[in-house]
């Protein structure tokens, strides 16, 4: 697939060959060695030490979906990075949040973005939200060899379904198994057990957008409270969770000031109630 440098402006033959609308299929046919899952790792003894991203949460509300993540990456018992970004737009109406091996996760997201853009350019139409979720499942499955060596990537995919006119959430396992979260919320990563417990008690069907953004930050706070690999709001360094909202208007990431305002209001209330808001018994 190397370009012919003797003739300026001429595309390599691979780009002129009719084929699939999948960018992954294109790479598989013409240059499979650059796909993450096809790379050969050197012989290893024990687990691979690499920075890992942790907790991702998502919540639906009437009119859309919120996807958020904390900012900490760990390597063993050390904090590898305090301000890592784990939530990215996939296209205009969807986003993906990633937990697991940080470097591979970011690379997979970029490849997924190219996959969706390539399909749209070739076919002249966008994939359905279901189709996007299936494409991501295939990409995760292609990374199975590395996942078995400890380099796993486990995302949460969320978006606004323009056909059904509602927000939807899809979660995955390391083998590429995909499931839609019909309960209205989802979490992945090391703090997901605690985040899911918080969302289970606070979630209800009639959430407003503002309530949904507050709920995900509350859930991340609870995850950070019990999971050392999850980072809570860092007021001193002005590092706050990444919160994104996807509606029929498209993808929007809350500004740092908006995220800070939510986090600070939660911190003030936690001074009075350290364990957070209480759900009614009945």
Automatic annotation (TrEMBL):
GO BP, sorted A to Z: modification-dependent protein catabolic process; proteasomal protein catabolic process
Main location: cytoplasm
Keywords, comma-separated and alphabetical: Autocatalytic cleavage, Cytoplasm, Hydrolase, Protease, Proteasome, Threonine protease, Zymogen
Molecular-function GO term, any one: threonine-type endopeptidase activity
Reaction equation(s) it catalyzes: Cleavage of peptide bonds with very broad specificity
EC number: 3.4.25.1
Record localization: Cytoplasm
Pathway: Protein degradation; proteasomal Pup-dependent pathway
GO CC annotation, single: proteasome core complex, beta-subunit complex
Segments traversing the membrane: none
Propeptide stretch(es), residue numbers: 1-53
Pfam families: Proteasome (PF00227)
Record text on activity regulation: The formation of the proteasomal ATPase ARC-20S proteasome complex, likely via the docking of the C-termini of ARC into the intersubunit pockets in the alpha-rings, may trigger opening of the gate for substrate entry. Interconversion between the open-gate and close-gate conformations leads to a dynamic regulation of the 20S proteasome proteolysis activity.
Positions annotated as active site in the UniProt record: 54 (nucleophile)
Highest taxon listed in the record's lineage: Bacteria
Family indicated by similarity: Belongs to the peptidase T1B family.
Function as written in the Swiss-Prot or TrEMBL entry: Component of the proteasome core, a large protease complex with broad specificity involved in protein degradation.
NCBIfam families associated with the record: 20S_bact_beta
Subunit-level organization: The 20S proteasome core is composed of 14 alpha and 14 beta subunits that assemble into four stacked heptameric rings, resulting in a barrel-shaped structure. The two inner rings, each composed of seven catalytic beta subunits, are sandwiched by two outer rings, each composed of seven alpha subunits. The catalytic chamber with the active sites is on the inside of the barrel. Has a gated structure, the ends of the cylinder being occluded by the N-termini of the alpha-subunits. Is capped by the proteasome-associated ATPase, ARC.
Name of the protein this chain belongs to: Proteasome subunit beta
